[in-house]
Amino acid sequence: MITYTWDIFRLDCAPSENGLTDVVKVIHWILQAQDENGVSSSINNSYPLPSPTPEGFTDYSTLTEETVIGWLESNLDVGYLQSRLANEIATQYNPPIVPLPLPWVKVEEPVLEVIEEPVAVEEPVLEVIEEPVLEEMIADGYKPNATDGDGDGMVQDATKWERPIDTQP
Question: Which 3 state secondary structure label does DSSP give 135?
């Protein structure tokens, strides 16, 4: 099940129009969708309003979020927006296009080091230690060409990759 939530984050107003004050001209909104697994998608847009009649005018100071959302829901194709968001969530589970590694770039397999430790049983216990690959380290925030911005002799300060200049982890 997908839950849809409106967020009105700004109203652009005309200070004066046809004898009315603080007339809402543009609604800036986000429609967010989230499924039961926390997977989400959102649409961020704006909607221009026509000039109100004096009879249909709502004073700015009395506006509520529900009133403004009502204006959007009565003027936008909400069914289409919700369908689009549901499709975007579905493609996160089953992406129609996925990136693959370039076939001409050879990625080295991680080096596995097997350490045998003597134990009191007949067979040795093997522990496999996998060394991280540079690409994985970079994806995790490691910067091989980091520079010392504050002159303290260290790079990537306050991260797990902090190290003296010109050293590798």
Answer: helix
Rounded alpha-carbon distances, angstroms, from residue 30 to 11, 69, 74, 104, 155: 13, 11, 16, 42, 39
Report pTM. Answer: 0.58
Q: Which two tokens stand for residue 102?
A: 């370039």
The identity of residue 48, as a single letter, is: P
Each residue's pLDDT, cut to its tens digit, for the chain (169 residues) gives: 999 999 999 999 999 999 999 999 999 999 999 999 999 999 999 999 999 999 989 999 999 999 999 999 999 999 999 999 999 999 999 988 888 989 998 877 777 777 777 666 666 666 766 666 777 777 777 777 777 777 777 777 778 777 787 776 6
Task: Give me the residue spans of the domains in the chain.
Answer: 2-93, 112-164
Q: Contact at 8 Å (CB) between 127 and 135?
A: no
The token pair at 76 is: 């936008």
Q: Which residues contact 115 (CB under 8 A, 6 or more apart)?
A: 126, 127, 129
* DSSP letters spanning 20-70: EEEEEEEEEEEEEEEETTS-EEEEEEEEEPPPPPTTT---GGG--HHHHHH
Query: Tell me, what amino acid is at 101?
Result: P
The closest of 36, 117, 42, 49 to 85, measured between CA atoms, is 42
